[in-house]
Structures are given as structure tokens and as C-alpha cells.
Amino acid sequence: MTTPVITVMHGAVGYDGRPVLRDISLTVATGEVVAVLGANGSGKSTLIRTILGLVPLSAGSITLFDRPLRRFRQWHRIGYVPQRLGAGSGVPATVREVVASGRLARRGILRPPGAADRAAVAAALASVGLTDRADDPVATLSGGQQQRTLIARALAGQPELLVLDEPTAGVDAASQEAFAAALRGFVDGGGTVLLVAHELGPLRPVITRAIVIHQGGIAHDGAVPEPAGHHAAPDHDHVHPHGPDEHAGLWS
Ligand SMILES: Nc1ncnc2c1ncn2[C@@H]1O[C@H](COP(=O)(O)OP(=O)(O)OP(=O)(O)O)[C@@H](O)[C@H]1O
């Protein structure tokens, strides 16, 4: 059996006493690419932020790389791209500087960057297709390119687990394709991915498993649901993880 990277057992989360997630149990193993799907406000971001220790559990337990979350310190093993950070808005940093900041957890703030740091930054820039923009201020990039910069920053840290919150939301088609290719390269190198998505688009072939959050619980954990409109396909197995009240096209 492959090593579990993430284990959540009977996890419950709420804000100000208002429950958002209840009795969540899941395991993500090395090499999996897991998409967390669900309607707006269903708790997808809350789930991944809880896994990263950013939101406290009200019940249950979490382990990362086989260590209880409260004792986990090896954060360099995890790259996190939060939802819509707005990289560089008002900040005159170049793309390369933002990506290089992803090395800090690895090299420590006081040690100057070495050849390994520069190589990791160059590889991360290339993997998202931004080599030719490396010395431009981030603020001059499109929203999709800024999002790619943040993904490159996470990749530059050479993490084993990449956690991404809606990496392709509002991102142009070229950036979505570039991101799918970068993700494929990361996974081929042995990486594990947990991402929140609204629409899978070009990511669909890279995803190995889908978890659907509905009414605070896991409504489906398994095959990636077909896009709406594929129900008549001959190989459709009539598994309907989504309730009738959810948006059509949620998985398109
Ligand atoms: N920091 C917070 N304080 C209080 N309530 C919050 C906080 N963050 C999220 N919520 C609430 O928790 C619920 C789940 O939010 P969450 O952001 O996890 O959903 P989501 O599935 O990621 O949504 P979306 O698809 O819109 O990003 C929502 O009702 C939201 O309003």
C-alpha cells in the first residue's frame, strides 16, 4: 500500500459555532491527484484550509505524512496556492522574485540563494510557461499569468504535496492549459495533489479521483463525475453523486 499523505478521520469544522463540515473521513495517498468539488459555499476551501491547519477542527483528527497535524513541522514538503491571492497587486516584485520566495522555507531566510535555488526557480518558471516573463513586474501580467506565478512559487519549493484552491478559476484558456501541463509534470515526478475546483476543464485528464462535498459531508468519493449532458453515453454507469438541487455543469 502507498503511504498516506493526508488522513482525515471524522473531521468536523465550524465557524463561530456554526457547523460547515461534519464527519469527514478521507485518505489521500502518494501520487493521487484529488479534486474537491461541490457547490458554492459547500465547504471546499474550509476542508483544505483545515487540512493545512489554518482552520481548527471541532472534532476528529488529521495526519500529514503520518504525523498528527498539531505536531507536523515539515511545511517545506507542502506547497499551497490559496484562492485569489492577487499576487503583486501594488507590489513592484518581478515574476522571478515572487517565484524565488517559494524557496524560503527550504533555504532559510539568512542563507543567500545558491545554484540549487536558482535551478529550482528556473524549472518552476519553465513548467508554467513564464520563462520569458521572469523579469517583468508581476503587476503587468494577466490574472491567469499571475495565478501561474503563484503556482510556480509553490513548485519552486519542490514540495511533495501541492494543495491548490481553485487554481483555474477565472483563468484564461492558455493559462489553464499551461497549468494542466505543469501539474502533469509535477505528478510524473512523484508529486501528490489536492485541489479545489469548480470546473475541471483541461485538468480533467490529470485528476485521478474526485471528492464531492454536499451538505457538509462527502457525497461522493471516487471516479471523476462526467460533465452534465453525458448521461446518455453508453459507458455511463449511472452513479449520480450530485443532488438534483446542485448547479448543472458543476463538473464541466
Ligand atoms: N473565515 C470564515 N468565517 C466565517 N464563515 C466562513 C469563513 N470562511 C468560510 N465561511 C463560511 O463557511 C461556508 C463554507 O465556505 P467555503 O469557503 O469553505 O466554501 P467553498 O465550497 O470553498 O465555496 P466557494 O466555491 O464559493 O469558494 C460558507 O457558508 C462560508 O460563508
From TrEMBL:
<dbReference type="GO" id="GO:0005524">
    <property type="term" value="F:ATP binding"/>
</dbReference>
<dbReference type="Pfam" id="PF00005">
    <property type="entry name" value="ABC_tran"/>
</dbReference>
<dbReference type="InterPro" id="IPR003439">
    <property type="entry name" value="ABC_transporter-like_ATP-bd"/>
</dbReference>
<keyword id="KW-0547">Nucleotide-binding</keyword>
<feature type="domain" description="ABC transporter">
    <location>
        <begin position="1"/>
        <end position="240"/>
    </location>
</feature>
<dbReference type="GO" id="GO:0016887">
    <property type="term" value="F:ATP hydrolysis activity"/>
</dbReference>
<dbReference type="InterPro" id="IPR050153">
    <property type="entry name" value="Metal_Ion_Import_ABC"/>
</dbReference>
<feature type="compositionally biased region" description="Basic and acidic residues">
    <location>
        <begin position="228"/>
        <end position="252"/>
    </location>
</feature>
<feature type="region of interest" description="Disordered">
    <location>
        <begin position="221"/>
        <end position="252"/>
    </location>
</feature>
<keyword id="KW-0813">Transport</keyword>
<dbReference type="InterPro" id="IPR003593">
    <property type="entry name" value="AAA+_ATPase"/>
</dbReference>
<keyword id="KW-0067">ATP-binding</keyword>
<protein>
    <submittedName>
        <fullName>Zinc transport system ATP-binding protein</fullName>
    </submittedName>
</protein>
<dbReference type="InterPro" id="IPR027417">
    <property type="entry name" value="P-loop_NTPase"/>
</dbReference>
